[in-house]
Write a structure and sequence with these properties.
The protein is α+β, with helices and mostly antiparallel strands. Helix content is about 25%, strand content about 25%. The chain has a four-stranded mixed β-sheet. A three-stranded mixed β-sheet has the order 3-11-10. A hairpin with a 7-residue loop joins strand 14 and strand 15. Helix 3 packs antiparallel against helix 4. The protein is elongated.
């Protein structure tokens, strides 16, 4: 696989998955497409064969965490494949056969050196950092940090959804120095990374990837006279309370991502994300199994033996009536459709109702006489006969 392919091809689009897809989602998408376009299922179809090769190539990269990380970093660095050498930009008439590490190696080679990139890294990347009319370097915006927090919901809130207040502490631009890190508000551009906040590192295979600059900690700026509040970092602790909507149907220990609700960015950068781990309290009556709710309903011996209608409670709604067929055994589970938890598509799961035959502790005279008569009438029946027969034959 060439360097050009690695940078220009959108493997996420090939598999039809988002860029934040999990390993399981990538594997599922690959298996589905591989079955659809496999040559054995499309004999003589050249387009299907080519599509299968693309799918396999995409899975080879995205299915390997290490390759996927390098792929994501490379595409982020080059604007999702947007970088291409200009006219005459290299030996071979604009071919892509060069070491990306050379771009970071030294701007001095840009003056008429091999590759024809002109004035060095600033001219190669254009928008990565540039110089304004005053000659000062403009550093790039910086994304805010992600925040992790937890919340506990009642069983009903988790099923129906809820808006809860969350008080969070995070790093935000320092108010004392307006986020510059400098007491006088005049930081200088970091000479190590030239204001980009990143330095290059070799990763082998002709690639150079980036790490946060160790001198400016990724800010691109260094304070001459550090702010006493933030110690030159430009960031200070900030507390805030925000109302967060937890979607309906959330399960215990589920982690929810809320885009843009994390720490504020720097210099116009976008905010980070908020990750909320949800804990759900138990319910005295209802339980949960995937998208279904569960409940155990006591019935009398007569109802189980003769059949009848039984009222069953639901969560947050009116009771439903289920019809017991005659001879319903203890432990049988019936289904009340649409009375369960909310699914992602807005539909609901079911309520699973398990029958539990209730044995009375005290019997009245008539009930005792009737039950005694029933026992005498069924004296010849042995409900354990099959049990002993199976035990003997095992």
């Amino acid at each position: 696989m060439s360097t050009k392919d690695f940078i220009e091809k959108d493997y996420y689009k090939v598999l039809g998955v988002p860029k934040d897809a999990t390993e399981a989602e990538i594997k599922k998408a690959y298996r589905k497409l591989a079955r659809e376009f496999h040559p054995d299922a499309n004999k003589g179809n050249a387009k299907a064969e080519e599509r299968f090769k693309e799918i396999s190539e995409a899975n080879d990269v995205l299915g390997d965490p290490k390759k996927r990380k390098e792929y994501d970093e490379a595409r982020s660095l080059f604007g999702n494949g947007g970088f291409r050498p200009g006219p005459g930009g290299g030996a071979g008439g604009g071919s892509f056969n060069f070491d990306l590490g050379d771009l970071f190696g030294g701007g001095a080679q840009g003056q008429g050196g091999t590759g024809g990139f002109g004035g060095g890294i600033g001219d190669v990347f254009g928008g990565l950092f540039n110089r304004g009319g005053s000659g000062t370097t403009r550093v790039q915006p910086r994304r805010g940090q992600d925040i992790d927090t937890e919340v506990t919901l009642s069983f009903t809130e988790a099923i129906e959804g809820a808006t809860v207040p969350l008080r969070m502490s995070s790093q935000a631009p320092c108010k004392a120095c307006s986020g510059t890190g400098d007491k006088n508000g005049n930081p200088r551009v970091c000479p190590t990374c030239v204001g980009t906040g990143q330095v290059a590192r070799g990763s082998g295979g002709g690639f150079s990837l980036t790490d946060p600059c160790p001198d400016c900690k990724g800010r691109g700026l260094i304070a001459e006279d550090p702010c006493e509040i933030c110690k030159g970092s430009g960031r200070a602790k900030s507390s805030r309370t925000m109302q967060v909507r937890i979607p309906a149907g959330v399960s215990d220990n589920q982690r929810i991502r809320l885009r843009g609700k994390g720490a504020p960015g720097e210099r116009g950068g976008q905010a980070g994300d908020l990750y909320v781990t949800v804990h759900v309290d138990s319910h005295p009556v209802f339980g949960r199994k995937d998208d279904n709710l569960t409940v155990t309903v006591p019935v009398t011996f007569a109802e189980a033996a003769l059949g009848g209608e039984v009222r069953v409670p639901t969560l947050g709604g009116p009771p439903v009536t289920l019809k017991l067929p005659p001879g319903t055994p203890n432990g049988r589970t019936m289904r009340a459709r649409g009375k369960g938890a909310v699914r992602k598509d807005g539909t609901r799961g079911d309520l699973l109702v398990t029958v539990e035959v209730s044995v009375p502790k005290d019997l009245t005279g008539k009930a005792r006489d009737a039950l005694q008569a029933y026992r005498e009438a069924t004296a010849g029946e042995d409900p354990r006969a099959e049990l002993f027969q199976a035990a003997k034959g095992a």
